[in-house]
Structure prediction request, 738 residues.
Amino acid sequence: MSIKFEIIKECKNTNARLGKLFTPHGAIETPVFMPVGTQATVKAMTPQELERLGIKIILSNSYHLYLRPGYNLIAQAGGLHKFMGWRGTILTDSGGFQIFSLGELNKVDDDGVFFNSHIDGSRHFINPEKAMEIQMALGSDIAMAFDECTPYPSGKYQVEIAARRTIQWAKRCKEAHHSTNQSLFGIVQGGTFKDLRIENANKLVELDFPGYAIGGLSVGEPKSLMYEVLDYTVPCLPISKPRYLMGVGAPQSILEGVVRGIDMFDCVLPTRNGRNGSLFTSSGKLTITNAKYKNDFTPLDDKCQCYTCQNFTKAYLRHLYTSKEMLGSILGTIHNLYFMSNLMKNIRLALLEDRLLEFKEESLTNFLS
Amino acid sequence: MSIKFEIIKECKNTNARLGKLFTPHGAIETPVFMPVGTQATVKAMTPQELERLGIKIILSNSYHLYLRPGYNLIAQAGGLHKFMGWRGTILTDSGGFQIFSLGELNKVDDDGVFFNSHIDGSRHFINPEKAMEIQMALGSDIAMAFDECTPYPSGKYQVEIAARRTIQWAKRCKEAHHSTNQSLFGIVQGGTFKDLRIENANKLVELDFPGYAIGGLSVGEPKSLMYEVLDYTVPCLPISKPRYLMGVGAPQSILEGVVRGIDMFDCVLPTRNGRNGSLFTSSGKLTITNAKYKNDFTPLDDKCQCYTCQNFTKAYLRHLYTSKEMLGSILGTIHNLYFMSNLMKNIRLALLEDRLLEFKEESLTNFLS
Prediction:
């Protein structure tokens, strides 16, 4: 089966909607946040722990898996789900973003990209056809088109070339993609230029994808500019298809994205922050290694029901992080992912109960200050 | 309550016995292996995971906790159990072994030991009274006397001085120790010298401790020599008290220790090996990073019922370790601790069914080759 998207309820005052995304590996309530499992593992988490956290969908990175352990190996293993022991849904990106941000770029032209591996310097070539071959071998439920992402700030001429190339590549991805169990999403580029974004979105929609992503945001531009791009880009996308804002996961940005009509989000932030001791709470972010927590025998967040908050104190967590104990990263990741799951659950509940804007304001005041 | 030890069954052909150790935090079937939680955490494991593995008792290191986060902080937290969220039994060592092996030793005399911290070089003094103060503050169920451990090889004169000092210190520990919920074990020293070990054991037994440890072994001497020391030392210890062989945890040594009458073992080996990808299996030890496992889509050990073996392949585990993913260490530790728990369970079953020696021979042939 390919994916199916159902809108359960539309928000009266905003573009937000409550939905359900049916995939070959289960149904997902939207808006949803997808934790990132870069190298076929959400860092510090067992698949069992992710399930306990109520997580139904994760993202994994084609670029990393292509380089290590290799997509042929994962295909031999029976696909990425089986390889990593994950029963839920997987979305893979195309590798485009990583090639442009991590790899040592050698040459980009209309055909594709030559780059050197960030691991061993070896030379590689990826083009739209190859990106499809890789993702079909991985067997993710949702694959992403191969795109060219420009940094911020970039000149309009550069962004325009990349955006047009992204459309050409999206066409080639669609032609190269053939899988009954995998759905291919297109990606809108166009930087922070209104005309380019709108042109790009319209051309992409003509190609008719089962879902659309907005790429090239959260790459250094001010947040207000990102929200502006969403304001004029989302309305170009069909109402009936899922909309995915790539690489965005700060709680504030998620709230702003949801009210603008975004259904899916991903970001390394909650897991990376969790490993580093930067922990989300209902009254703001907290740096657990701070000396003031040395003798603090209260939980991280006394309103939180997660395993970490139910069983451990700030003093213990601080000890784990300052002693560089792995358990610190494990408990911090559990907490931050629980926080994200809970935030999304509360967003969906607010949507259902017609009080999304109130929830957003309340949340921004309480914990995003 | 203090501990109580019950012998359920004695082996007919060896000194081994099946027992039950009652502690303020639960009952433990012996022979038992205790995982090490050096810094108030068994590395890479949540307390929940340890419970799932059937682990009832862990060891924690006074030396490390004294230096970081400090025993007063742990006392403020309500003791070590509460601080680290561990509901089972805790045994703490005295710090003696670590001071002599990790710390930069400054001066040892009959009063105590001056040493510099291995973390920040700060100067510290620990003597028997201080070691008791620390462990009473930690509130472990079983505390260990402060001893002087000599390296191998050491001259007889040096070992004799340390062994006699250990007896003097054991007396002072007993006088300084006052806790209704903590039991203090004595430690036999004497290196690999038969007369010193026997003299030391006899003097220690005169002091009447609720349990006895054999220290200063597995410090570089040949295994055969360690077994020889057990052969003549264990018979000096009272039958009715638990016997603990410190720092020993290789499966082969555990089997040899059990038949010689040892009830308790601890070692960092299963957890450290687990983190490094050296994994125990029913057909021998395996280094998972080996290239031959790259395409091996079978479990680590197809006879093993642990979470790791039930859900992941060697190829995936190898990928995690070679990519330096934390999940590799987590899954490797789960597997190795499960292996140890299972080994101890099988030892106890063999004891119960009067086939310990057969089990030992069989095990040595199968998985210790």
